[in-house]
Amino acid sequence: MSRQIHYCKCGQSIFGDMTDCGDCEQSVGVVIGIDPGPEQSAFVCLSDGRVFDRGIVANEELAKCDGYWSSRQVFIEMIACYGMAVGASVFETCVWIGRFTELSRLAGGKLSRVFRRDIKLHLCNSPRAKDGNVRQALIDRLGPQGTKKAPGPTYGVKSHEWAALAVAVYGWDTIFGRTTKHGGPPI
């Protein structure tokens, strides 16, 4: 597998499909949001407030994506305790969250864990918001999905990618500190 070398606007070389190093003032800013799972995880990459990469991949494959762990702002949804009994899949998801955290640390990246409740509060102003409410808040903010002939900013986002997009938007807002009527920044 050959790796292409790309250069940031500041001249620092980076690998993969990334277009900036994320460490300098000249960098545009790349935020990666991850919705982890026991076997597969969804990820969404935002740059300049637009989705430029997304997918649902096996955890082993996501762990091999070197460019995502180094010099990037990575936000991952964290498991929270709500007093209910949980199964083995929740514990396996926790193991993967730990592995992704360690990969980011070893690669020199910046990984932050985010609770779903905080994302709901941020996007919908209510911790009781459902997935449909979060999805609608994202569409209201970023734009409609559009059609195949006229794709919108969220075209093709599906399933768990919506949760990963919510994590990425929360991360974007945390970094750039902008606000809207819902408490989050416009992208």
Order of helices and strands: EEEEEHHEHEHHH
Q: What is the straight-line distance between the termini?
A: 35 Å
- Overall pLDDT score: 82
Helix content: 25-40%
Low-confidence stretches: 1-7, 15-20, 180-187
Adjacency order of strands in the biggest sheet:
5-4-3-6-7
Class per helix and strand makeup? alpha/beta
Strand content: 15-25%
Compute the CA-based radius of gyration.
Answer: 16 Å
Largest sheet geometry: 5 strands, mixed
- Helix tally equals 6
List the helices and strands and how they pair.
Layout: E1 5-7, E2 13-15, E3 30-35, E4 40-47, E5 50-58, H1 59-63, H2 66-69, E6 73-78, H3 88-107, E7 110-115, H4 116-124, H5 131-142, H6 161-176
Parallel strand pairs: 3-6, 6-7
Antiparallel strand pairs: 1-2, 3-4, 4-5
Helix pairs in contact: 5-6
Short recap of the structure:
The protein has 187 residues and is α/β, with parallel strands linked by helices. 35% of the residues lie in helices and 22% in strands.
Verbal overview:
The protein has helices at about 60-65, 65-70, 90-105, 115-125, 130-140, 160-175, and strands spanning about 5, 15, 30-35, 40-45, 50-60, 75-80, 110-115. It is α/β, with parallel strands linked by helices and about 190 residues long. It has a 5-stranded mixed beta sheet. Strands 1-2 form a two-stranded antiparallel sheet. It is globular, with a radius of gyration of 16 Å. The termini are far apart. The model is unreliable at about 1-5, about 15-20 and about 180-185 (pLDDT under 50).
